[in-house]
Write a structure and sequence with these properties.
disordered N terminus; globular; disordered C terminus; 10 helices
């Protein structure tokens, strides 16, 4: 697994929003190192965008809102089964519904949530993959285990069958520079290795190059692949309308 390969930092041929989705998908996947996969973050984008990505060869998609994702999954039921990942903050009262619709959950952020997921998975005869969300720097807008909390909880987390602990997920705070991002992602990868976990869900549209260089196995890319979400596009239009 690569750790710190500077050759993956900011290639000059970034996919452009004006390019067709298939071209953006090809450019991103071609830039990923061996062992690193693209999770196409389709939240906020219509089912038609997912269908276009599937036609271009993408199979794994990330969603963070249960109601929105459920509607899209129903609309895309005619396709071969897709690999759906839940990446948003998971409310305890939605755990059962999320488990029924997603095979992988990237945002298990507490021992209590992990225990609830394991209990419900047993009741539903499911075997979901779980990635535990870690906070490697203080960030009041994010939830997750600190490294110390995760190590303390690990003896229990590791035995919560039928939940399958497969990796760690982290979200970098905003405003970090290139070197700070590399250090943060390398720390997450090292923690996963210490716990014997093969998966590292690290990196989004703005920092996936650093994450891939640090050993990410899943980069979660939305806007760099699908473009600006329709809701954001409307907000930008409204700002222009009222600002003259």
């Amino acid at each position: 697994m690569p750790t710190g390969d500077s050759s993956l930092t900011r290639p000059s041929s970034e996919p452009l929003a004006s390019e067709p989705l298939a071209a953006r998908l090809e450019a991103i996947t071609a830039a990923l190192p061996p062992g690193c996969r693209l999770l196409a973050v389709s939240k906020g984008h219509p089912a038609e965008a997912i269908r276009a990505a599937v036609a271009a060869g993408q199979r794994s998609f990330g969603e963070s809102r249960l109601q929105e994702a459920s509607a899209k999954q129903e609309e895309l039921a005619d396709l071969a089964p897709l690999d759906w990942h839940f990446i948003g903050r998971l409310q305890a009262n939605k755990a059962r519904a999320v488990l029924r619709r997603f095979g992988t959950i990237h945002s298990v952020d507490s021992l209590a949530l992990a225990e609830r997921l394991a209990r419900i998975a047993g009741e539903e005869s499911l075997n979901p993959a779980a990635l535990f969300q870690v906070k490697l720097r203080p960030d009041p807008s994010k939830t997750g285990f600190s490294p110390e909390e995760l190590r303390a909880a690990w003896p229990r987390l590791a035995t919560l069958a039928p939940l399958r602990p497969v990796g760690l997920m982290t979200i970098a705070p905003q405003g970090l520079g290139h070197e700070e991002l590399q250090v943060l992602f390398q720390a997450c990868a090292a923690l996963a290795t210490q716990l014997g976990l093969p998966e590292r869900s690290m990196g989004m549209s703005g920092d996936w190059h650093e994450a891939a260089a640090a050993g990410s196995t899943w980069v979660r890319i939305g806007s760099a692949l699908f473009g600006v979400r329709p809701s954001q596009r409307l907000a930008i239009t409204d700002v222009g309308r009222y600002s003259g």
